[in-house]
Amino acid sequence: MVAVTLLIGCGGSSDSDTPLPQAKKISDVDVPKYEGSGSKPAYSEKQAAPDETHPGVKEGVKINRGIVVPQEVEGQWKAVKIMVRNKIDESRNSMKTVSLGDSFELDGSAIKVTVGPFMPNFVMTQKSYSSKGNELTNPAVRLVVEENGKTLFEGWAFAKYPTMYAFEHDEFALQLMDYIPADVS
Fold first, then answer.
1. How confident is the model at residue 21, as a pLDDT?
2. Which pTM value belongs to this model?
3. How far apart are CA 158 and CA 120, in angstroms?
4. What confidence tier does 59 reach under pLDDT thresholds 50, 70, 90?
5. Does 22 fall in a domain?
6. Residue 157 within a domain
7. Which domain range does residue 143 map to?
8. How many angstroms separate the CA atoms of 3 and 24, rounded?
9. 27 assigned to some structural domain
């Protein structure tokens, strides 16, 4: 049982003969019902529960955006470096340098990762994924992760925000570490 004790005092005097107020049960304390961080909703029991979904977001609706590589980016990048982290055995972490459009397998698994395209300044609109110029402002690379022909992940890996929309797996994590321009051998 949880009890709340209310103490009332004045500064400067300590009168040990003054009895302390009786402890109250937390349920007896006059606090507006369900306010704050309680587990109950902040709406009245007489009201209907609000829609639990995010406003404007429909469950299961996926927007199919195209990928548009701008002319100033096309052909300017040839490869990326991906850190493959093994969450179970860190000694098996590795760095993979992969040409855009190529694939590699994760050691000791049936997981295949296909890399590309690369966007140096990733932007997303209602209709497409693209790059706002060729400056390295928000570098991202498209990854498709498959296991035994089944797609596990299809999305972007961001260099500056590695956990944003990241590939989630019990054993492996992938992180965009570097990008190699086309003119470097």
1. 58
2. 0.65
3. 10
4. low
5. no
6. yes
7. 66-181
8. 6
9. no
- In degrees and rounded to multiples of 5, residue 61 shows phi and psi of -90, 120
75: number of Cβ within 10 Å: 9
How many residues can be counted in the chain?
A: 185
Q: Which residues of 40-74 are buried (b: 16+ CB within 10 A; e: fewer)?
A: eeeeeeeeeeeeeeeeeeeeeeeeeeeeebbeebe
| SS3 of residue 28 by DSSP | helix
Residue identified by tokens 């190699």 is 180
Instruction: For residue 73, tell me if it sits in a domain.
Output: yes
Pairing of strands 94-99, 172-181: unpaired
Query: Which residue matches tokens 């992760």?
Result: 145
Rounded to the nearest angstrom, the gap between the alpha carbon of residue 136 and the centroid of all alpha carbons in its chain is 22
Burial class (CB in 10 A: 0-12, 13-18, 19+), 92: middle
128/30: higher pLDDT:
128
pLDDT value of residue 120: 97
* Averaged pLDDT for residues 104-128: 94
3-class DSSP state for residue 117?
strand
How many domains are contained in the chain?
1
For residue 98, the cross-strand partners are 80
